[in-house]
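Q: Structure tokens for this one, please.
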Amino acid sequence: MNYQLLLECYSSGSEMTKDELQMLEIELDTQIESIKVSRTQGCLKIAPTHICQAANVCEGSVWITCLAAVLDNCSPPSIGQKAKGAIVFDELVRQGYFATN
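A: Here is the predicted structure, written as tokens:
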């Protein structure tokens, strides 16, 4: 099952299993690496409104942001550990997807 289907299930109220969360973690790591080399990744496309709402991110957010937010919600970072959403945002800025002026 791909991450988009898992996020669809999550948005309909299904809880994530430990295995599903682990798969999403791996997928997020893979996507973070892929955005460094290509601007045509599916994770950079706008996620549907219901996915953004379920992830508690702004409407019009990209898939990778929704994925990170769901992971942060389902398995919050430990004290001193950076949130996945912050990691993704920093990488998007670093790669020039967002301007910080």
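A few notes: Residues 77 and 86 are 11 Å apart (CA to CA). The radius of gyration is 13 Å.
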